[in-house]
Amino acid sequence: MSAVEPDPKNITKMETLVERIVDLIRTHGPSPGAQLAEWLDGVPPIDLWHACYVSRRIRIRNCARYYLRYDVTRDNVLRLSPSILRDFLTFSLIYIPEQSVSAVEGGTLLANKFRSISLRKLSRARQALLELDPDLQRELNDHCVVFLSGDIAYFLAHDTRRLHPTLNVPVNGSDIDIVIVTNNQADPDKIKAIGDELLKIKRLYLLMPKVREELDFIVKPFDKMIDQLAYGDIHQKIASKILYESYFLMGRVDIYESLMRHLELRGTRAKIEADFETALGQRKDTISKILALAPEESVKDPEVASLFFVSQERIEFQ
Q1: pTM score, two decimals?
Q2: Which of 255, 167, 253 lies closest to 207 in space, CA to CA?
Q3: DSSP state for residue 174 in the 8-state scheme
Q4: DSSP letter at 233?
Q5: 193 burial level (CB within 10 Å; 0-12, 13-18, 19+)
Q6: Which of 37, 130, 143, 170 is 20 to 30 A removed from 185 (C-alpha atoms)?
């Protein structure tokens, strides 16, 4: 047998998996990738992804919006979020052609689900700030700008459960990332008090069974934020991207507008968007590679392993 010819055993295995998927979808209707993975427990995720994307009998409706992330395990530190696997499991609806109408309806409901989760987490962020002492709230409104970033800013926040690495308690999916930028007139003592209070609220949110949200925050002066727009090292890149994708929450609109002007004037926006295009090209190449190979072969490729699975590498934003 020629090395380029497909292995008949792999073909039979894939056909059998496709048949199982089609039967499940026909019975239950259009379903998220994660639901399929649960029904087909024991099937490797890359096999399931491959079967759905290769088969002409299966359709996929996606509701994700991709955005740039940085991963120090990669040579150029660039990747897109959600990962290829997370995109499939969480943000994709799997269906068969005769279910096209219900797939459109289901896709809309799926997208609205993540929008609702994002709005709930956004509301939780506001609640945290409103729990501060009134004097500290005035400091925020008079001398600071507060904005959100990450999944919430793109209305893609999810509730996929995970364990907190230090407290070992369940956390409801996406973090709530808050950035506070202060002007030169801010009172240092009050700014410190804001940080101290938010730390207490952070712990409370993690430990309260009805909340279980991870609230991360950073407080930084305006001048530091401007310096980070140099977009040089990994920390500057993360800080710049967080501003680029930010969602205004409260405080001084003029500070926020000034930051966004600097993002444009310093060429940082253009650099971020160029890096996005690079990461998008790498993702497309990786998907083509997976589709061209048997799943067990493609997963051996470092690039596939890096972009297909969810990255566990985390860098705290500064």
Answers
A1: 0.88
A2: 167
A3: S
A4: S
A5: middle
A6: 130
Collect all residues with Cβ–Cβ distance below 8 Å to 53 and sequence separation of at least 6. Answer: 60, 287, 291
Tell me how far apart the alpha carbons of residues 259 and 313 are, in angstroms, rounded to a whole number.
28
Measured distance CA(238)–CA(246) in Å, rounded: 12
Q: How far apart are CA 12 and CA 151, in angstroms?
A: 39
The C-alpha R_g of the chain, in whole angstroms, comes to 22
Are the beta carbons of 224 and 236 closer than 8 angstroms? no
pLDDT of residue 3: 43
d(CA 229, CA 225): 7
pLDDT along the chain (318 residues), means of 10: 50 87 97 96 93 95 92 88 92 96 95 95 96 97 96 91 90 94 97 97 95 95 98 95 96 98 98 97 93 83 82 54
Residue linked to tokens 């696997």: 85
